[in-house]
Design a protein that fits this description.
Length: 231
């Protein structure tokens, strides 16, 4: 269980997050939603150790991850797939995947066959450079690279952005499979409402850096979520 409590975050003198709280449990998708600029990416960056937060706590299975760095977050089991993917364009697909080895003991530094079962296109293109892949293929590579580290928490920032519909479906199937396996807590930031709504077990809607709705999916309607997102 990942728990975020009363998180605040600043960029210089500007406050971006105001006391944000959420929970993410294994075998469930927590969808973080809201319009552009409300703090969704900042929240993920704080959890991933990409940006220091000003106050509040982040705990994983009861252990406080206090102002963790990106390296410490990765070692703790938090994997981040950022908006824009951030794959290495001059490295091959295989080499990009191997960058996920950093948090693993040497005896476990191998690419599991399961990665290619989840994303068959990566097997076909394993010797191709990352920069030569399509946007959808790069997104699959970015998610696969995150899974190489065997995370306990997977953070996905806008995984459908600029992606063709057939690959969106593929990514949705992978997220659903990971949820069903019950080992990873997934936090999904997504603007594509139907995609998020079809996968989410709970919703956290942000507006101007504050939580305006936080409820299990079974207890909230599409209309309520859309109303809060559009405030």
């Amino acid at each position: 269980m990942l728990t975020v409590r009363d998180l605040t975050l600043h960029y210089g003198a500007s406050q971006i997050l105001y006391g944000v709280s959420l929970e993410a449990r294994p075998g469930a998708v927590t969808a973080v939603m809201g319009t552009n600029g409300v703090g969704k990416t900042s929240l993920l960056r704080a959890i991933a150790g990409r940006h220091p937060y000003s106050g509040g706590t982040i705990t994983l299975d009861g252990a406080v991850l206090d102002h963790l760095s990106a390296a410490a977050a990765a070692r703790a089991g938090i994997a981040y797939v950022p908006q824009g993917r951030e794959i290495f364009p001059l490295l091959t697909v295989t080499e990009n995947l191997q960058t996920g080895f950093a948090c693993l003991p040497r005896s476990e530094r191998r690419i599991p066959e399961r990665i290619y079962e989840l994303f068959p296109v990566l097997r076909d293109m394993k010797d191709r450079r990352g920069g030569d892949l399509s946007g959808g293929q790069q997104q699959q590579l970015a998610i696969a690279r995150a899974l190489i580290a065997r995370p306990r928490v997977l953070l996905l920032d806008e995984p459908t952005e600029g992606i063709q519909p057939n690959i969106i479906k593929q990514i949705g199937r992978v997220i659903a499979l990971l949820r069903e396996e019950g080992e990873i807590a997934i936090i999904l930031v997504e603007q594509y409402f139907d995609f998020a709504y079809g996968l989410a077990d709970s919703f956290c809607v942000l507006n101007r850096g504050e939580v305006v709705l936080s409820r299990p999916a079974a207890e909230v309607t599409r209309a309520e979520i859309l109303e809060r997102v559009s405030i």
